[in-house]
Amino acid sequence: MKTLNDFNFENKKALIRVDFNVPLNENFEVTDSTRIVSAKPTIIKILEDGGSCILMSHLGRPKGRQDEFSLRHIAETVEEIIGVKVIFVDDCVGEKAEKAAANLQPGELLLLENLRFHKEEEAGDVAFAKQLSNLGDIYVNDAFGTAHRAHASTTIIAQFFEGKKCFGNLLAQEIESIKKVMETGEKPVLAILGGAKVSSKITIIENILDAVDHLIIGGGMAFTFVKAQGGKIGNSICEDDKMDLALDILKQAKQKGVQVHIPVDTIAADAFSNDANTQTVDINAIPDGWEGVDAGPKSIAQFHDVVMQCKTILWNGPLGVFEMESFANGTIELGNSIAEATANGAFSLVGGGDSVAAVKQFGFEEKVSYVSTGGGAMLESLEGKTLPGIAAILQ
Ligand code: AMP
């Protein structure tokens, strides 16, 4: 696996695919700069080597050239975070971009206009990728968030940099973190899968059974498993057509020696509302008219014990309807347990969608080992797929 350390960037122009798809407010100010901060180590390493950086990214989903999606809006924030003046060019290919790239001196930073102003980007157009490739000497992919897309700048472009392409620090870290969970992590390995639907996580569960010793199934997903085993789940969220599959997963887990932990109790609410009446009940005896919305105290204690036993922990999906304050406790307590295990030396990876939002919202970001920057890319990796953006660097 080629990384930045395999190259000396002195007098080289690094063409870096970053993920600067950051949220902007109505005044076009960046409201969350995490993704820019995450790309900083790669950029700094190249500049310190004596190279220059050409940054390319998409922003939002523009239909052609639309000023509201211009990367010009983020240039100032990039400049502040990296601490180097940003030269902005209002296209990513063509004469202007080529001239700006040709004039770039060591230590300088060039930001290209939104790649998706050209429809060829998402189409994975080879000629467009070739045009982009003309701008730099070495191609660096540091955008995990788009690594599952075979777009021109994330995948197709790599073929024009034979022997001159590598992963940036961020992408290398993402790959390493997933590898720890799936292959090289210290045992016991635990995966915690929560969230709303079994259907969106089936492939992950099936793939992950070969890698883990323990599996916690929580959140709304758990009720399909509970009902499938004959439990009464009241109005709780359930996918009836996935009950056979749930039983099959439990069977597979047993065969593979994976210990599956399903909540034993739940906070039940009489409405899907923060102000609903609640009661704590056994998970398989939820009264009619009530629905399970959060993990109960016995389940929280049980999950705490499992988490504390494990040395490698993956967390994907909340344990309850954490967006409502009244039902966030299970998710927060799980975060606390993972933070404690991490402080005791376990490796913890949080990734894929809502658990990342929960971790940020409840302040666990600094207390876990790694928070993934890619939602869909993370989920596809856990499904065992080789992401096209990663494969293109390895080829
Ligand atoms: P996912 O995107 O699959 O990770 O699902 C996240 C969503 O699952 C969040 O919006 C949660 O509110 C929701 N969720 C978690 N637990 C429950 C539950 N017991 N009932 C309904 N929704 C839930």
Automatic annotation (TrEMBL):
Binding site for ATP: K201, G292, E323, G352, G353, D354, S355
Residues noted as binding substrate in the record, renumbered to the chain: D19, F20, N21, R35, H58, L59, G60, R61, R116, R149
CDD domains the UniProt entry points to: Phosphoglycerate_kinase
Catalysed conversion reaction: (2R)-3-phosphoglycerate + ATP = (2R)-3-phospho-glyceroyl phosphate + ADP
Pathway assigned to this chain's UniProt record: Carbohydrate degradation; glycolysis; pyruvate from D-glyceraldehyde 3-phosphate: step 2/5
GO molecular function, one term: kinase activity
Subcellular localization, as worded in the UniProt entry: Cytoplasm
EC annotation from Swiss-Prot or TrEMBL: 2.7.2.3
InterPro entries: Phosphoglycerate_kinase, Phosphoglycerate_kinase_N, Phosphoglycerate_kinase_sf
Enzyme class: transferase
Keywords assigned: ATP-binding, Cytoplasm, Glycolysis, Kinase, Nucleotide-binding, Transferase
Description of how the protein assembles with itself and partners: Monomer.
Family statement: Belongs to the phosphoglycerate kinase family.
Xref: HAMAP family: Phosphoglyc_kinase (MF_00145)
Protein name stated in the entry: Phosphoglycerate kinase
Species whose genome carries this gene: Flaviramulus multivorans
